[in-house]
Design goal:
Layout (H helix, E strand, L loop, with lengths): L1 H12 L8 E5 L5 E5 L8 H5 L9 E5 L2 E4 H17 L7 E5 L4 H12 L3 E4 L6 H11 L1 E7 H4 L9 E5 L8 E2 H5 L16 E6 L9 E5 H19 L20 E4 L6 H14 L2 E4 L5 H11 L3 E4 L1 H8 L14 E4 L6 H10 L3 E6 L9 E4 H6 L6 E2 L5 E5 L12 E6 L6 E2 L3 H7 L6 E10 L2 E7 L4 E3 L2 E3 L1 H8 L5 E11 L3 E10 L7 H8 L11 E5 L13 H10 L1
Parallel strand pairs: 3-13, 5-6, 5-7, 7-8, 8-9, 12-13, 12-14, 14-15, 15-16, 27-28
Antiparallel strand pairs: 1-2, 3-4, 10-11, 11-21, 16-17, 17-18, 19-20, 20-22, 22-23, 24-25, 26-27
Helix pairs in contact: 1-8, 3-4, 8-9
Length: about 550
C-alpha cells in the first residue's frame, strides 16, 4: 500500500543522523514546534545561499539572450550587499524591490537577505499610490525598481531609489553603477535564524494589504520540508521524480520555467530559492505568454514548471502545442489556486509530464500540503498530504474544537514556517493565531485519510436562500465542459434569496455558447440550486490577483455594471 511505503520512507529519512532529523523546541512565546536539527541545515538564508556555490560554473539564470552562472550571480549579490551597507543599510532595515521578473530581482533579494536586512517584494502590479503606501508602511530605506515602478513616487523622497534597466536617462541612480566599485566578498554580518528576513504583502483585492513578516527560520523550514518531501517522492514506486536526482541516484540536469511573479511566495520560494539547493537552472519570463513558454521549454530543455494552474492548462490547450518538442518536461507544478479534477485527468492523458499541486499561504511561507504522482491522479480534488515532518494541519469549528476526519471546517496550520506576524498590526495577528501557535487559514476543508481537500474560503461561499454553495465545486463541474478555459463562481445579489450563483466564463478561441448551454450541461452533475443563474462570457482571460486566484471583487464589479 502506498501509504505504508510513504511512511516507511519518511521514517527512514527523519531517523537520527539523517538530514531531515528533527526535534521539539519551544520558542520565546512558549509555543512548541518541531524543527530540523541536523547541523548541515543552515540557520539563515545567507548560509543557505552558499549551497549555490557547490555548482559555481553552472548556468543559473537565463533571461532573454542573457545567461549567468551561479558564481556570477553570487558575486553580483555580494557587490550589492556591500553597496547597500555603504549607503547606510543596516541589519533589520527594510529594502524594497518592485520590478518585473529579471536577474537583478534575484541578485537584490539575495543581497538584502544575505546581509541581514529585510527584503520587501512589493507587488509590481500596484499603481503608484499603492507602491507609495507599501514604502511608507514598511519604512523602506531603499527601493530597487524598474522605470515604470518609479513613476509617481515623488512623495517618498526619503527613500533611496535605484533604477534597474533604464531605457532612458533617469533622475535616479542606475543599479549597476551603484554597485560596480564594490567588493564581491560578502560583508561581515552577525544575525540568526530568528532575525526577520522577508516582508511580503498579501495580494488581497480590497482594503490595504497586510505585510507578512517572516524570519530566516520560517523560510528555511519551508525549503527543507519541501526537499524532504521531494526526496521521499523520488523513491516511491509510482516513479515520481525528485528535484535533483534520478531514481537511480544519479544527478539529473534540471531547469524550471519561472513564470510567476517574484513578489509572490510561489515565485520566490518554489521557483527561485528551491533552485539554489539543487543546482537548478531558472529560465525567467518577464511576462506570461503560452507560445513563448512552449518555445523556451524546447530551447532550454525545461524539466519543471511552477506556476498557477491556468498556465499549465494553457500549454495543454494551445493550438500549436504539437509544433514544439516539450518532451523534457517532467513536472507541471501548480499553486495559488486549485486545479479542476478534469484538468488533472486531461493533463495526465496528453502530457508526458505529470501534474502536481501545492497548498500554502503567504502567512505559512507557502508550506502546507503537496500532491503529485499517482496519488494526484487518484485524488485529483485534493491538495495532497501534509508536507513532512514539521507541519501539522487540523480542521476546526468556530470554537476551535478539532473535527474528526470527513467533517468540514476551517483549516488551521502549525509549523515553524508560520510567519512572525503581520507588520505593525498586532490586532490582525492575534485574530489568526491562538496561544498554541495554530494559524487560521481562512480556508474551509476536510480530510479524507491523509489527503486534505479545500472546499472554499470561509468568507467566500455563495449563500443562496440559506444554502451554502461551494464555488470550487461548481467551477469544477463547469470545467468538465470541453470548451471552457476559465470559470469563476461569485455570489450576485438577489432580492428574494439574498444571493444567486453567478459565473464568469472564458471560452476557447472561436467558440460561442449561450448561458443555457452551460446550464443544460450542468443538469445532473450538481444539484439544481447550485447551477449558475447569471452566466457571463468573456473573450479575454478573467482578471486575477497576484497569487493567480481570480479577482472576485473586480468580477462582482463587472457584473454590477452590466
Amino acid at each position: 500500500m502506498m501509504t505504508d511505503e510513504y511512511q516507511e520512507l519518511l521514517n527512514a529519512h527523519t531517523a537520527p543522523g539523517e538530514l531531515f532529523e528533527y526535534k521539539e523546541v519551544t520558542d520565546s512565546n512558549g509555543v512548541t514546534y518541531r524543527e530540523f536539527c541536523n547541523p548541515a541545515i543552515p540557520s539563515t538564508l545567507r548560509g543557505f545561499l552558499d549551497f549555490g556555490l557547490l555548482h559555481p560554473d553552472k548556468d543559473w539564470l537565463v533571461y532573454e539572450d542573457e545567461r549567468y552562472t551561479y558564481k556570477e550571480v553570487f558575486d553580483k549579490s555580494a557587490q550589492t550587499a556591500n553597496a547597500l551597507k555603504a549607503a547606510g543599510v543596516e541589519q533589520g532595515d527594510r529594502v524594497a524591490i518592485c520590478m518585473m521578473n529579471n536577474p537583478e530581482y534575484i541578485v537584490s533579494f539575495m543581497a538584502i537577505t544575505g546581509m541581514g536586512a529585510v527584503v520587501v517584494p512589493l507587488n509590481s502590479w500596484w499603481v503608484p499610490s499603492e507602491v507609495s503606501y507599501g514604502l511608507d508602511h514598511c519604512d523602506a530605506k531603499v527601493l530597487i525598481a524598474d522605470e515604470k515602478r518609479l513613476i509617481g513616487l515623488e512623495n517618498n523622497s526619503d527613500v533611496l531609489k535605484l533604477v534597474v534597466r533604464p531605457e532612458q536617462d533617469s533622475d535616479h541612480q542606475e543599479f549597476n553603477m551603484f554597485i560596480n566599485n564594490y567588493s564581491a566578498e560578502w560583508p561581515q554580518s552577525d544575525f540568526s535564524g530568528d532575525d526577520n528576513a522577508t516582508l511580503f504583502y498579501t495580494s488581497g483585492s480590497t482594503g490595504f494589504p497586510k505585510g507578512v513578516l517572516s524570519s530566516h527560520r520560517n523560510v528555511l523550514a519551508t525549503l527543507f520540508s519541501w526537499l524532504c518531501y521531494s526526496t521521499i517522492r523520488s523513491k516511491m514506486s509510482d516513479g515520481a521524480s525528485a528535484l535533483g536526482e534520478n531514481t537511480d541516484g544519479t544527478v539529473k540536469e534540471i531547469s524550471v520555467l519561472h513564470c510567476v511573479p517574484l513578489f509572490h511566495v510561489t515565485g520566490s520560494h518554489s521557483s527561485f530559492l528551491m533552485s539554489v539547493v539543487v543546482g537548478r537552472k531558472i529560465v525567467m519570463m518577464k511576462k506570461w505568454d503560452a507560445t513563448e513558454a512552449l518555445r523556451l521549454i524546447e530551447q532550454e530543455s525545461i524539466t519543471n514548471i511552477t506556476g498557477v494552474p491556468t498556465q499549465s492548462w494553457e500549454l495543454l490547450s494551445h493550438p500549436e502545442r504539437e509544433k514544439y518538442d516539450i518532451s523534457s518536461l517532467e513536472d507541471l507544478g501548480g499553486g495559488g489556486a486549485a486545479r479542476p479534477p478534469e484538468h488533472v485527468k486531461q493533463m495526465d492523458e496528453q502530457f508526458k509530464a505529470k501534474p502536481s499541486i501545492g497548498y500554502g499561504l503567504s502567512e505559512t511561507n507557502a508550506l502546507g500540503t503537496l500532491n503529485g504522482g499517482a496519488e494526484y491522479l487518484e485524488y485529483p480534488s485534493s491538495c495532497g498530504r501534509i508536507v513532512p515532518p514539521l507541519t501539522d494541519i487540523n480542521i476546526i469549528d468556530e470554537n476551535w474544537n478539532i473535527l474528526e476526519e470527513g467533517k468540514l471546517g476551517e483549516v488551521v496550520i502549525k509549523s515553524p514556517a508560520n510567519m512572525v506576524g503581520f507588520w505593525k498590526n498586532q490586532e490582525a495577528t492575534a485574530e489568526v493565531f491562538n496561544d498554541d501557535g495554530w494559524f487560521k487559514s481562512g480556508d474551509l476543508g476536510y480530510f479524507d485519510g491523509p489527503f486534505l481537500h479545500i472546499v472554499d474560503r470561509v468568507k467566500d461561499l455563495v449563500i443562496r436562500g440559506g444554502e451554502n454553495i461551494s464555488c470550487i465545486e461548481v467551477e469544477a463541474a463547469i470545467y468538465e465542459h470541453k470548451d471552457v478555459l476559465e470559470a469563476c463562481i461569485i455570489g450576485v445579489p438577489d432580492e428574494r434569496l439574498g444571493e444567486q450563483v453567478g459565473s464568469a466564463i472564458h471560452l476557447k478561441p472561436g467558440v460561442e455558447l449561450k448561458p443555457e448551454d452551460i446550464q443544460q450541461f450542468l443538469y445532473g452533475k450538481i444539484a439544481k440550486f447550485k447551477i449558475p443563474f447569471d452566466i457571463r462570457f468573456y473573450k479575454e482571460p478573467l482578471p486575477k490577483i497576484a497569487s493567480g486566484k481570480f479577482d472576485k471583487p473586480q468580477l462582482r464589479k463587472l457584473f454590477a455594471e452590466n
